[in-house]
Amino acid sequence: MSKIKIFALGGLNENGKNMYVVNVDDNIFVFDAGLKYPTANMLGVDYIIPKFDYLIENKKKIKGIFLTHAHDGNIGAMPDIMKELPDVPVYATKFTMTVLKMELEKYNIEATNLKEIRPHSKLDIANFSIFPITVTHSIPETVAFVLYTNDGAIVYATDFVFDSTMLGAYKTDIGKLAYVGKQGVLCLLAESSYAYREGHTSPKHRISKEVWDLLNQTDDRVIISIFPEHVYRIQEIFDSVARTKRKIVLMGRKLQRLVNYAKEFNYLHYDENMIGDLSNINDKDVVILTADDKEKSFASLEKIISRYDKYITLKEGDTVFIAEPIYPGNEKKVAKIMDDLSRLDVDVVTLPFKNHVLHHPSSEDLMQMINLMNPKYYFPIKGEYRYQYMNAAVAEQAGLDKDKVLLKLNGDVVNFINGKLVDKPEHINADEILIDGNSSDDIGNLVLKDRELLSKNGIVIVSATIDRKTKKIIADPQILTRGFIYVKDNLDIVEKTEAISKEVIEECIKGKKVDFTGIKVKIRERLSTYFNEETGSVPMIITVILEI
Question: Contact, 228 vs 106, CB < 8 A?
């Protein structure tokens, strides 16, 4: 009797942090291991990864981690995971593996179990067959994975579009997808991010026209901001620049390395004579390509605008082209950048979110994939829940019964026994880990709340010294404040704060035993009430009671 469990440790009801687990008779297959980036209120958090305790607890059952492509949302958690699971084999295509090694290098992780795979070459692992099929995305050698089981194939297809003009390492192999569909698909997992958009994504994922139009509209310097992993978008920029006499300068070590790798592996094509260097940075007609990860989106632009960049100084006549769509979550940042650039008499061009999308399936792309696969069950993945819901509606339009469409949240387990869905409520812990810096330690929500409080209301530190034996105050309470009030204009508040603190201490040291922890708690409680009544806000309050 075959037992199959499918669930997400990340990726459902959210953007990024993709990690999906398929458990077949106690053999575990993991597909992707991504991160997501924090919202503006998550102060000090660099990125967020899935909590993978389930994998640590069942590490002996894991047959491999299979990576579809080299974007952060799909491989960004790998350095953290490999610290904990160094012996688990990792499978990826050549370009994906190259980018992964670059990321591991940043964290000084020596990988010993990386296994490079070729698209369309079957993998035989633990009596199972896994088949990677190329699909069209913005980065070379993106694949969908087909896991064959006795009850039919499980197909994991995320980040794809159908575009017949995309060739080579960017081509969707429709023939092989159709072949898999004819063999029988138990469950298809497909992304939801753009399920709400009608029609096919193509050609809305292209920017060649916008780049070419811009280069023809100005004879002056152009600065283009992109995400470095979108290799196909870089190709479009190179192709447009090649039609001019302009030089292009690449800024940023990661961008330069990715371009070099892509050129070396024949995924990126350009005449090396068109590539300039820092000596060309101030040429009147140069094109400067600057790139940031989503982790630090537009950080390079902000650095240039603030005049902290030691190479680029913006000047009148420059044009800045933000060559990534304005997506939900970065509107405010882009708006501020546009304002700042306007103040510098610099023109700015953007790709409106309404008219341009990235290489992700719209409703017709999803419909086409469903028709090719003809799955018994359909699992909308990757995206906020409302988009999962819209993806489910697409599946129903394609002819699937509503009870065959699986709308789930992270940790919800889908159970199949002998190829049939079993109504068996089951949940796996699928919390997330907040990463601050290069540590895998979860900083937790309490730390975030403290940081938010500090950023909004500042901090007040109360210090005093007490003689433990005599139970007398040796040094009266002193107040230090930052970011809460301007002391010189609020001496009355400072004096009252000191008085309240002393009053609390005197009350607490009258008993037989002095509860120093209790003193700190009561000071915080009294001062919180006072500050709220007096100022309308409550800062972070830290009490330091020295005992001698």
Answer: no
